[in-house]
Amino acid sequence: MKDYEAVSEPSTTPILDKVRTPGDLRRLPQASLAQLASELRRETIEAVSVTGGHLGAGLGVVELTVALHYVFNTPDDRLIWDVGHQAYPHKILTGRRDRIRTLRQTGGLSGFTKRSESPFDPFGAAHSSTSISAGLGMSIARDLKGDANNVICVIGDGAMSAGMAYEAMNNAGTLDARLIVILNDNDMSIAPPSGALSKYLARTTSSGTYIHLRDIAKQLAKKLPKQWERRAARLEEMSRTYWSGGALFEELGFYYVGPVDGHDIEQLLPVLKNVRDTKQGPILVHVVTKKGKGYVPAEAAPDKYHGVVKFDVISGAQAKSKAQAPSYTRVFADSLIAEGRKDERIVAISAAMPEGTGIDLFAREFPNRAFDVGIAEQHAVTFAAGLAAEGMKPFAAIYSTFLQRAYDQVVHDVAIQRLPVRFAIDRAGYVGADGPTHAGTFDLTFLGCLPNFTIMAPSDEAELYHMVATAASIDDGPSAFRYPRGEGSGVALPVEGVPLPIGKGRILREGSKIALLSLGGRLGECLIAADLLAAAGLSTTVADARFAKPIDQDLITQLAHHHEVLITVEEGAIGGFGSHVMQFLSINGMLDGKIRMRSLIMPDVFVEQDSPTVMYSNSGLDAKGIVSAVFNALGRETITTGLHAS
Fold first, then answer.
1. Which of 58, 135, 170, 265 has the fewest CB atoms nearer than 10 Å to its CB?
2. Domains in the chain, please, with CATH?
């Protein structure tokens, strides 16, 4: 038997085949929606088994997705999915079923909601906790234009750990905006929905009559003497908390409705209809769901099935990578554990990504020195700053794309105060199927312009091991080291990490005409390019910068003085390492001589999803691209015959 729920289908034609858009869905009889949800769950499982992607969250909102599109007039009613992990069923129901097996593939559907992809995606979401802010903006715009459509935000409980969500709720409550927020509680419940009484209360608390009466009571309390008003408000709060557990949201100005069983369409529909027809707001509907619902392997291990590679639907077994080399993330974790054994002041911080960053491994050995702060990167950075201020050695392991969210804290709370926070920046460079929202494109630029920072990028796993040790040794200011996603090259790892001389690179190959200065993971391509250039009669030096800041001035001066062409190569945006090298050469008058310089960077566009290999090739950051840049600098056409990188 298959590990997803069996579906009894009375009709020969699946109901899902009749639904191309939500308009088709809304023409179905209500009695057929449960069967439709089962078919939608099956389609989601089978599609993701082919493409990989985020599975568990989407399975948990199948019934909710059906109910929302059934009750609300999308796309005129704006339906905003927070993060986008949970939006695969939504994509299937909104005209994209025929392309769902292109999910996260070259030229295919995005793994997240995307405005340019469909009018049913009113707001792009790949980072967490943005939906309420965006929804509030849309609701105010609607009111200013005199429109009457609904705005609905679906936010997961994990996303509610971010301060931005509460900032938006506080603002929405202050503005008394007509906004609907669906809290998809798929992990822990404020008050478990059980039994007929819970269902009755959910329907009752969402009804227009109940909300109207509560509003009258609040207005009446304001007219009472202050002492009586406080007592009345306190009594109302206590009774409301007893029945619903929603006092926190009510204090922020929201009417709280729920909890509602998110897998019971018969319970969802009347609640959503009541909320839709209520013109007061804002309203929060607390919906309890089970992550991975309806697929046994995902229900049993929601963490492992949050994001998956291709898998076998029957067994749930995920395809294994053929690569045997440890991932950069694992090397970071092992090296941090090694440093942690030597120095009890070392602590590790993750922002809701302990497994993705390897901090979970550190936590197994040092449970009291590892901290997962939730989806709260701003807090993570300042929390680390506080630890550093008291003499601890914090390592904040945050993906490059997520560190952007805490830039103000990096500047004010860390850099200005010269606090020795160590940033382990995972997912540097292109990340493949997750596309431009998750690419580590900008960290070299936005950190490189900050005084007091030491910034490193390893060319392989062994170098990463040494850079963790280097960061541990830096106590007079902040430091960062960035490394890519995925497996390394399989180089032998050192027995122990050894701190590197700060701001010093290394030369791996000596030449006389061309100089290739690499920062980070493109060093291997530079070595291949050097072989291709040698075959064309161009003697080439290959150097590993190691440090983006401070740059190795002596090494750069040597390369500029003794070569005709200098090419810098990095996995970052404009304004990064190459810009610093060029600035140094410019202010020291070295660009006025014979040296011809080119800086190879990621292009100044948001690069869509593809395999990292293709993305780097299209960006000119592979060996062929490097050779082309050299010939361009020399004013010669590239000799392609026999110059094929393997």
1. 170
2. 54-86+110-291 (3.40.50.970), 328-482 (3.40.50.970), 506-634 (3.40.50.920)
